[in-house]
Specification:
Structural class: alpha/beta
Order of helices and strands: EHEEHEHHEHEEHEEHEEHEHHHH
Strand content: 15-25%
CATH class: Alpha Beta
Strand order of the largest sheet: 3-2-1-4-5-6-10
Bound molecules: nicotinamide-adenine-dinucleotide, 2'deoxy-thymidine-5'-diphospho-alpha-D-glucose
CATH topology: Rossmann fold
Largest sheet: 7 strands, parallel
Length: 337
């Protein structure tokens, strides 16, 4: 099988590639990634020498580059590449529209021209916007994004659905809740909080900290994506969630407990503008139609994640200081092979 992955050097994409190649070592897998600030080739060190694996540095907004990198009739395209951080989209949305909207259209066009098999589009539960309790966001519900990031992901979904309807391509959309685990860039809540706590630095809590997110371990999400890629119904959307809703304060309290740090490290700061209060995906369809279950209990996954960041202080330091580009140059000489 030939698999074309975009954004595979990021947090979720790299977990997907490590897991895919562990399970299908004879597959050919091409990782097409621009290598933005969020990418990290260290995440892929374990697959660097795998016979079927190759990396191409390129931008999903560049049709010629994607066309050149994608083989004819590849079996599966998994489109992770995106600008992914809500706070950055609030500071400046332009790159989010470019990468997430234009980039998705380019991927759809090239996949069709190259006669690719299945197109798996990775979206987010944020497209549903704020979900007041006790409601859960279902696959057919209206899309009401709040942030520029979520709006760009919503636009991308519409383009995928338009291609399904107009050109009858085999595409599937997945919407996942908040992932956590190793190799996550330390601008997102969990890696930022863990690394700050380890350094006895304050942890910013936006507003009252009572916003609810549904946490899922990144390995459970990637197992779900494998399942959808193999068994999902063409033209469908699937919700992938942790069934694990927690307030931010609750999660931060658990981290303080694991690390034995004082609550005084939690520092209230101005709230995120337009901050969604609650996300809650209904993932019944994944469970009932595809028989999906989660493997990683939250307490256990959180403990292991904390341990990973403790053991990878150098990775965190490089990420925080923006030294990745130098690291690539030292480690690999060239960024592609
Ligand atoms: P990430 O920011 O860690 O990684 C994004 C990757 O995409 C990086 O390797 C980056 O270099 C690459 N990229 C960005 N712009 C590109 C471009 N123009 N061309 C080629 N590559 C480009 O993101 P993540 O957290 O791993 O998220 C991956 C996907 O999953 C995104 O589509 C995101 O919207 C979605 N998602 C993330 C979460 C989460 O909790 N992290 C939850 C639901 C959905
Ligand atoms: O729900 C899925 C989404 O989860 C993905 O689509 C996004 O790519 C991913 O970034 C994530 O978005 P969030 O905005 O939920 O994640 P973030 O880690 O930025 O924030 C989680 C919660 O913690 C949110 O309520 C904001 C809050 N927060 C965040 C940071 C970075 C803080 O209180 N302090 C912080 O320093």
């Amino acid at each position: 099988m030939t698999v074309f992955v975009t954004g595979g050097a990021g947090f979720i994409g790299s977990q997907f590639i490590r897991d895919w190649l562990a399970q299908h070592p004879s597959d050919r897998l091409i990782n097409f990634d621009k290598l933005t600030y969020a990418a990290n080739l260290e995440n892929l060190a374990s697959v660097e020498g795998a016979p079927g694996y190759s990396l191409v540095q390129g931008d999903v907004c560049d049709p010629e580059a994607v066309h050149a990198a994608m083989p004819d009739a590849c079996d599966l395209v998994v489109h992770f590449a995106a600008e992914s951080h809500v706070d950055r989209s609030i500071l400046s949305a332009t790159e989010f529209v470019r990468a997430n909207v234009l980039g998705t259209q380019v991927m759809l066009d090239v996949a069709r021209a190259r006669k690719a098999g299945r197109f798996l589009h990775i979206s987010t539960d944020e497209v549903g916007g704020d979900i007041p309790a006790p409601r859960a966001f279902k696959e057919g519900d209206p899309l009401e994004p709040s942030s520029p990031y979520a709006a760009s992901k919503t636009a991308a979904e519409h383009l995928v659905n338009a291609a399904v309807r107009t050109f009858a391509i085999d595409a599937i959309i997945t919407r996942t809740s908040n992932n956590y685990g190793p190799y996550q860039f330390p601008e997102k809540l969990l890696p930022l909080a863990i690394s700050n706590m380890l350094a006895n630095r304050p942890v910013p809590v936006y507003g009252d900290g009572l916003q609810v997110r549904d946490w899922i371990h990144v390995a459970d999400n990637c197992a779900a994506l494998h399942l959808v890629a193999r068994k999902g119904k063409a033209g469908s959307t699937y919700h992938i969630g942790g069934r694990n809703p927690r307030t931010n304060r609750e999660v931060l309290g658990m981290l303080l407990g694991i690390l034995g740090k004082p609550e005084s490290l939690l520092t209230t700061v101005t709230d995120r503008p337009g901050h969604d209060r609650r996300y809650a995906v209904d993932c019944t369809r994944m469970e009932e139609e595809l028989g999906w279950t989660r493997e990683v209990p939250f307490e256990d996954g959180l403990r292991r994640t904390v341990q990973w960041y403790q053991d990878h202080a150098d990775w965190v330091a490089r990420a925080k200081s923006g030294e990745y580009r130098d690291y690539y140059a030292r480690q690999y000489g060239t960024q592609t092979r």
